[in-house]
Amino acid sequence: MPGFPCTDCGACCRKAVSLGYMPTRDGVHCLHQVVDDGGRSSCSIYDIRPPLCRVDDGILPRDTDLQTWHQRNAVECDKMQEAEGLGEEWRVGAVGIEPTTSGSVGQRSTVTTSEDEPPAAS
After folding, report:
1. How many Å apart are CA 100 and CA 102, to the nearest integer?
2. Most buried residue, 34, 52, 55, 62, by most Cβ within 10 Å?
3. What is d(CA 13, CA 28) in angstroms, rounded to the nearest whole number?
4. If we measure between CA atoms, which residue out of 88, 64, 68 comes closest to residue 78?
5. CA distances, 33 to each of 12, 17, 47, 60, 83 (Å)
6. In a 10 Å sphere around its CB, with 0-12 CB exposed, 13-18 middle and 19+ buried, how is residue 35 labelled?
7. Cα distance between residue 22 and residue 32, in whole Å
């Protein structure tokens, strides 16, 4: 299975700062977050970033496969992007994974998860 299709929006980096999990340089951006002129984020310590910042090689919750983990992260990613007012072009679904309530993860789908309904396990 391919890795999580991050769109490099940086919302998770900013969320980690707002929750006090990562150091900051300005109260908004992670100390290690680098933002280019197009708004795309990268990490200056990517190869040694902490487990909090790793979707694919972090510790999976018990009884969770990687596809389900990607689906759950896609749902949370969309929520963070929406909270920041980021456009649809930043959504993880735009690059290959759609948060769904049924069907398999990693395939395009028209069924999206509502905030009231948790994602279904695969």
Report:
1. 5
2. 55
3. 9
4. 88
5. 11, 10, 13, 24, 19
6. middle
7. 9
List phi, psi (to 5°) of 33.
Answer: -80, 130
Mean of the pLDDT values across residues 9-28?
95
Which residue carries 């980096």 as its tokens?
Answer: 13
Per DSSP, what are the bridge partners of residue 43? 33
Q: What residues pair up with 30 in beta bridges, in sequence order?
A: 24
CA distance 86 to 108: 21
pLDDT in tens, 45-60: 999 999 889 988 777 8
Structure tokens at 85: 């007012």
Q: Give the H/E segment covering residue 74.
A: helix 66-84
